[in-house]
Design a protein that fits this description.
heterotetramer, A alpha/beta, B mainly alpha, C mainly alpha, D alpha/beta, A: alpha/beta, Rossmann fold, 6-stranded parallel beta sheet, elongated, C: mainly alpha, 3 domains, 7 helices, 0% strand, extended
Chain lengths: 270, 211, 220, 292
């Protein structure tokens, strides 16, 4: 068997090639992405939507495009956006960076159109506690401003005041948004997750516990197309395609080798 | 681009490449990155707990007159008893408080939020007016859920009817895992694209500025 | 005392949340207690993170002190930890380098060293997946054949180039994969696993609450 | 403790009576202003039935009633792997997952570690157990020490067998990868919670030529272990394996109780499907509505 490092080299080439020779592809919209888009589209203007940044900087490439596309959609619809994160490592700073950049683009004002709550330890207690009072869990926003000083927070007490929760996550925290928040407070939850965890959540779509699902970079690309704001995800589809095809080719070659050697062995024993 | 920005990019690029170098083989650069990584991530937690818990949830509210917070502060401090073997049992009190509360939340949320709705969603009519496609979907769902549950049933040997159902369960499980694998490939490749983009656009970009 | 006190506390604190589930928060005393208990848990839980730091310091310092093999690396770990942690705990009013805002040492180290390394570790998986797929994905028996076929179909379906290829076999093929493979077989199995896992987690929680599961406390 | 199930069943019976007496209004109306959450009665009944069943089985297991568990394929693989390591004179690497001891999978992993340690003690094969959390460290050391003492090999035990490694997930994975290439264990056993590092560990181990056995309940990581390891315990097989090996009444009783509930769930689903198909299932279906 040859050195596996040749395979590594092929993978690297498959990613680098489209950087040098860019190409764009038509992305088809899946029903799950459409469902999420429609749910937000159907909200009355200036509704309050919670957008979570439940991901580590290490999965930025998959998740950040989802947050960006979501914010484009929410700001364009004049929704008031409340962000929070259950991730200690980087969650708060990503939320600040992304919301501030997008707010600037759409001319939104901090404290009036959007608020970043930041991070608190122990997600179970946080998710549950916000059902009674957001202020009890987050006395201050991410920049240590008391919530009482932020005009937007005047009308927000708990989940009852939130029309939709858009969870963007790279881990199993989604389970608790479903089993605690959606189940006990009935706030609709739409999710954008990494491709690793996406398959699991198909089970929650038909049960109605989840309203719409975006899976990984492809999901992000679909949402980018839906809100007509081309970003990183649509650009990444070329590299994504090449590496997938490479891996499929490797599987096929591996199996041809496997069957050839098995036949040779059978012949030798016969 | 300022000098400090270029430096930032170079530092990030150095550590990115140091980690990637492990693909070729283990080497001192990887070891260096590995150990710096371990230290930084531990240090990150300290800063985080300090700001979001000690200051924001404990110190500021206590200064504002919430004296009841003395109790969680004490419980938290008791955790450190673990470091002194003789009184380490005291830390169990704090631990029990954390574990007990979490257990209570879990007990309810798993039974109420997971099992009931997932059971209900499986009770699908097998004869549907919407046509053969919908009926087939319902059948796949019902058989899939039941055979998966049966595969993970340990109280009887998997023989006879139980064995057949469990076998169907394995087939379903393998297809689902295959789908999962295919989906995950996408995730990992996306992250590689992220890093390669950084090296190609940001890092190589600095070469144009420097040279 | 050593055994009984923790068990009683675990029971009471769990009981509060279970009982609050059964009653209306606005109508009973319990409603006011639950959020308080939950916010206390976040505080107490935070201290366990600090405990981990103490352990890391101890373990690495011992290695450095005794000049064990590779001790300079362990020393580096310690330095990295304290360079990150100490400035973060100093008030930002002293210097913009302190605290955790943008421009602080803490934020800089995180954004430009820690985060890129985390991303790179994930990215390495793309290489490993490729080699694992080549080496391990063999149609040895019916089970592995199903695994392999499903994996290849989904890999094709998730990217535009592959989807275009699938459409050559019929305009509905991608939709078919979405419906029957993802929302059908996959969702059914995930549901079976979710139910099983929920039972496991609930049974564990019950045992912890009632104090019959005490592994987390350690023995003695 | 053993009186508890009785009391709980009384409560269950009472609730059932309540349900029958007031079935329609109790479940249908959203009683925002009543003190008791009647709309959540279904979850409460499930909670009670579940608790009674689990506690009864644990009680029976403690009393030593024979409770049958089917053989878990793949458990022999663990013994074989340790045997191979002994022949090759190389160490065994055991990783009880990357989560704290409050995860049921970690507890299962630690109890399997006890079994593995007995075999390594018997053959005096070196054992390495890197862990990520202080509590797992304490529990791991205790379990391994006990195993060596039981096998009469206390002299061969060293506290460094179970060692504390860095905090962050990937920092931990990087360190373990380092151990795999530098110390070249003959067998790698992964039992517990694993996340994205599953394939990092399993591929590195495979490249280093180790035999690998994995067990985790995380469905998203199972495909990788299946692809890169020689044997994989899937999902609840992990719990079953640890109950099977340890015969610990808590594990065994819990598992048996869950098994019974699982069968009840299957029966309810089948009944539901039949009723709904016949078009008379609305009431039954409504019993599973969540109150919120």
């Amino acid at each position: 068997m040859f050195d596996r490092r040749w395979i590594y080299l092929l993978v690297a080439l498959a990613v680098i090639f489209p950087l040098i020779v860019p190409a764009t592809f038509k992305v088809h919209i899946t029903p799950e992405a459409r469902q999420l888009f429609d749910a937000i589209e159907a909200l009355p203007d200036s509704s309050i939507v919670m957008l979570t940044f439940d991901y580590y900087p290490s999965t930025l490439a998959e998740t950040e495009p989802i947050s960006v596309a979501a914010l484009h959609h929410l700001f364009r619809k004049d929704c008031r956006v409340l962000t929070m994160t259950t991730i200690p490592l980087g969650g708060p700073s990503i939320a600040e960076r992304v919301t501030r950049a997008l707010a600037k683009e759409h001319g939104k004002v901090y404290g009036v159109d959007y608020v970043n709550l930041g991070f608190k330890y122990n997600y179970v207690a946080v998710l549950k506690g916000m059902g009674t009072s957001i202020e009890a869990i987050y006395p201050m926003d991410n920049s240590s401003t008391p919530l009482s000083e932020l005009p937007m927070m005047e009308s927000i007490r708990n989940y009852d005041d939130i029309s939709f929760i858009f969870v963007v996550s790279d881990n199993a925290i989604v389970d608790y948004w479903i089993s605690i928040v959606n189940a006990e407070y009935a706030t609709p939850v739409g999710i954008g997750v990494t491709a690793v965890s996406a398959p699991k959540y198909y089970a929650f779509i038909s049960s109605g516990q989840v309203t719409g699902l975006l899976g990984g970079m492809k999901g992000a690309a679909e949402y980018e197309r839906l809100v007509k704001a081309e970003g990183m995800a649509l650009k990444g589809m070329a590299m994504q395609s090449l590496v997938h095809l490479l891996i499929i080719a490797l599987v096929i070659i591996g199996n041809i080798g496997f069957f050839a050697s098995r036949r040779a062995r059978r012949r030798a024993t016969a | 681009m300022s000098g400090i920005e270029i430096l930032q990019i170079w530092v990030a690029a150095f550590f990115t490449l140091a980690i990637f170098s492990f693909l070729y083989k283990d080497n001192p650069f990887f070891k260096l990155a590995e150990h710096v990584f371990a230290g930084l991530s531990a240090g990150y937690y300290v800063g985080l707990v300090w700001k979001s818990i000690i200051l924001q949830q404990l110190w500021y509210p206590m200064m504002a007159g919430e004296w009841l917070l003395v109790f969680p502060a004490m419980l938290g401090a008791l955790m450190f008893a673990r470091l002194v073997p003789k009184i380490s049992w005291v830390s169990r009190v704090s631990l029990a408080f954390v574990m007990g509360t979490t257990a209570g939340v879990f007990l309810v949320s798993q039974l109420n939020g997971m099992i009931l709705p997932q059971m209900q969603a499986t009770m699908l009519p097998l004869v549907l007016s919407e046509g053969a496609g919908a009926t087939l979907m319902a059948l796949v769902m019902v058989i899939g859920v039941i055979s998966t549950l049966i595969y993970f049933y340990f109280s009887k040997e998997h023989t006879g009817a139980l064995g057949v159902t469990a076998k169907v369960g394995v087939w379903f499980i393998m297809i689902a895992f295959g789908a999962h694998f295919g989906y995950t490939v996408m995730a990992r490749v996306s992250l590689l694209i992220g890093r390669v983009n950084f090296l190609y656009e940001d890092w190589l970009g600095t070469f144009l500025l420097i040279f | 005392m050593r055994r009984v006190a923790p068990v009683i506390i675990a029971f009471l604190s769990g009981f509060v949340t279970v009982i609050s589930f059964c009653f209306n928060p606005d109508k009973t005393v319990l409603g006011g207690i639950e959020p308080r208990v939950l916010s206390w848990v976040t505080i107490v839980g935070g201290f366990t993170l600090l405990l981990g730091v103490v352990s890391i310091t101890r373990v690495n310092w011992q290695a450095v002190h005794r000049k064990k093999e590779g001790w300079p690396y362990k020393f580096l770990t310690l330095v990295a930890m304290y360079v990150m942690a100490v400035p973060a705990m100093l008030p930002s009013s002293w210097s913009p380098l302190f605290g955790d805002a943008e421009g602080s040492i803490y934020d800089w180290l995180f954004m430009h060293i820690d985060a890129p390394m985390m991303g790179t570790m994930f990215a390495m998986l793309a290489f490993y997946i490729a080699s694992a797929a080549y080496r391990a994905f063999r149609a040895r028996n019916p089970e592995s054949t199903l695994l392999l076929a499903a994996a290849v179909l989904v890999m094709l379906w998730r990217v535009p180039m592959g989807e275009a290829f699938l459409r050559l076999f019929g305009e509905n093929v991608p939709g078919f994969i979405n419906t029957y493979l993802m929302n059908g077989v996959n969702a059914a199995v995930q549901r079976g696993i979710v139910i099983g896992a929920a039972l496991g987690a609930a049974s564990m929680s019950l045992r912890i609450m009632l104090g019959i599961e005490r592994t987390y406390m350690g023995k003695g | 403790m053993h009186r508890l199930p009785l009391k709980l069943s009384l409560v269950a019976a009472y609730n059932l009576v309540l349900l029958i007496l007031g079935s329609e209004p109790a479940l249908a109306q959203t009683t925002v202003d009543s003190v008791f959450r009647w709309d959540r009665l279904n979850a409460m009944i499930l909670l009670v039935v579940f608790s009674v069943v689990i506690l009864l089985y644990i009680k029976w297991a403690k009393e030593g009633k024979p409770l049958f568990l089917r053989k878990i394929p793949g458990l022999e693989a663990v013994e074989e792997a340790v045997g191979r390591a002994t022949e090759m004179g190389r160490p065994v690497l055991f990783i009880p997952g990357i989560q704290e001891l409050d995860e049921i999978e970690t507890i299962a992993g630690v109890s399997i570690l006890g079994r593995v340690a007995k075999i390594t003690a018997q053959y005096e094969t070196p054992l390495m157990v890197p862990v990520r959390y202080p509590l797992v460290l304490a529990a791991g050391q205790e379990v391994v020490e006990q195993a060596y003492t039981e096998m009469g090999k206390h002299d061969a035990y060293s506290k460094d067998m179970v060692r504390y490694v860095a905090g962050e997930q990937f920092a931990f994975a990087a360190t373990v990868n380092g151990i795999m290439v530098r110390e070249r264990p003959a067998a790698n056993i992964f039992m517990g919670v694993f996340a994205a590092e599953s394939l990092l560990l399993a591929e590195t181990g495979n490249a280093a030529g180790s035999i690998q056995i994995a067990g985790t309940a995380r469905p998203e990581q199972l495909p990788f272990f299946i692809a890169a390891c020689d044997y994989t315990l899937m999902g609840e097989e992990l719990y079953a394996a640890s109950a099977y090996l340890s015969h610990e009444p808590l594990m065994l009783g819990g598992l048996k109780g869950q098994d019974l509930i699982k069968i009840l769930i299957v029966i309810f689903i089948v009944v539901g499907v039949i009723l709904v198909t016949l078009g008379i299932g609305d009431t039954f279906y409504g019993w599973f509505d969540l109150g919120n």
